[in-house]
Specification:
Strand content: under 5%
Order of helices and strands: HHH
Largest sheet: none
Distance between the termini: 32 Å
Oligomer: single chain
Helix content: over 70%
Number of strands: 0
Number of helices: 3
Structural class: mainly alpha
């Protein structure tokens, strides 16, 4: 996904530097990309929340039963939760950058 985002941002920046660019069309395209990434962000937020709930449940299991299975489950879910947090953080930063770019395109139209 990051390759797609970086590729799109590179293309978008080249379009912003082009004075003959159709900014109205670019604004519509960028708006559709923002909607796409907002959906991705929502899905990953939901997955991250459920992974966090699973992690808390595995901690509870480890404390109450102290078994090898619950310890392995906690380690696995902890690693997965950390990866999802990093991924969600990157998605959130991308959306914030794209909002700024959207406003920049909008200002060029006016």
């Amino acid at each position: 996904m990051y390759k797609k985002i970086k590729s799109y941002e590179k293309w978008l920046n080249s379009q912003l530097e082009d004075p003959s660019c159709d900014f109205e069309r670019l604004l519509q395209l960028h708006e559709s990309f923002i909607k796409w990434i907002q959906n991705e962000r929502l899905v990953h937020l939901i997955v991250t929340l459920f992974t966090g709930i699973g992690l808390l449940f595995s901690v509870y299991l480890l404390v109450s039963e102290d078994s090898f299975f619950s310890g392995m489950l906690m380690v696995l879910l902890g690693a997965l939760f950390g990866i999802y947090i990093i991924h969600y953080f990157r998605l959130e930063n991308t959306v914030q950058r794209w909002y700024i770019t959207y406003l920049e395109i909008w200002k060029r139209l006016k």
